[in-house]
Amino acid sequence: xxxxxxxxxxxxxxxxxxxxxxxxxxxxxxxxxxxxxxxxxxxxxxxxxxxxxxxxxxxxxxxxxxxxxxxxxxxxxxxxxxxxxxxxxxxxxxxxxxxxxxxxxxxxxxxxxxxxxxxxxxxxxxxxxxxxxxxxxxxxxxxxxxxxxxxxxxxxxxxxxxxxxxxxxxxxxxxxxxxxxxxxxxxxxxxxxx
Amino acid sequence: xxxxxxxxxxxxxxxxxxxxxxxxxxxxxxxxxxxxxxxxxxxxxxxxxxxxxxxxxxxxxxxxxxxxxxxxxxxxxxxxxxxxxxxxxxxxxxxxxxxxxxxxxxxxxxxxxxxxxxxxxxxxxxxxxxxxxxxxxxxxxxxxxxxxxxxxxxxxxxxxxxxxxxxxxxxxxxxxxxxxx
Lengths: 194, 181
Hints:
Chain A has 8 helices and 3 strands, in the order E-E-H-E-H-H-H-H-H-H-H. Chain A is mainly alpha-helical. In chain A, a hairpin with a 4-residue loop joins strand 1 and strand 2. Chain A is extended, with a radius of gyration of 23 Å. By secondary structure, chain B is α/β, with parallel strands linked by helices. In chain B, 35% of the residues lie in helices and 18% in strands.
């Protein structure tokens, strides 16, 4: 069943633009004051997430399986547009999801692999051992996650990978100042918005 | 402090990763939402958008077939679909500044960098509900107003022509929403 169509928006026309005020009455009608003793919705959502967290380890293993399979296809078929995309999506999912699944230490290594795949102009020039090292690092960090020193181990491993990757990317993009600027710009903090 | 009646809102979650869809659905149900639809790529997402007419769209960026950015551009076509003004929250592992700018310029309403948390997701939803921005239509852009504040110290060129409409006041509800943080 579809929602009722919203009312026609108000439009103010100016020299080179229009300012349009859409009908947001349906959204606004959902706002109300909190009632005394009402449960916190964020706490309720966190509790709901905690109830399914027992599956997170298996989900992380699924993500690693995808990453490993994509790596093997690269090894078999070489880096093409298709195999690059498959590997990139797998690494990107690990980067984005591992923190929620309880393995935040794996994100920087996955991020480094994403950068390598995204910013190398000629895929054929990517040394496959660097790809392997990234995938193996992500897998090792997840596998050894229960170690008390996993934070420092992951940081050391990732730092080396990132250093090698950035050096390669700087070399490969030396004639592309826009890409160089992008490579050197800092990432947003997790959970950041505009 | 304000609350949202989530059970009166319809959500569409678009993500190629089934685990992430499950997490998003769990969080939304935890907030109190009942109507949560899912799609696994941009094409299926556009189809679901047309069919279910959601009140809020949450989309990943990196997806096969067409991605979240392309999906946003397809939704933000004035007169081309049932609700080109729908709030779009992009939930993505892309964290580079250029990506954020590209998402904004495609017409995304809010941007949330993964990993997500219940609190961060809730805040984005409160923001699109309590603080709806007007839309701007130019030759090259159609989407939520990209000016989030009225700076009194801005000294650069005025890029919009037309006088009074250059000042767009934010609704007072924003202040209420901020209290939730």
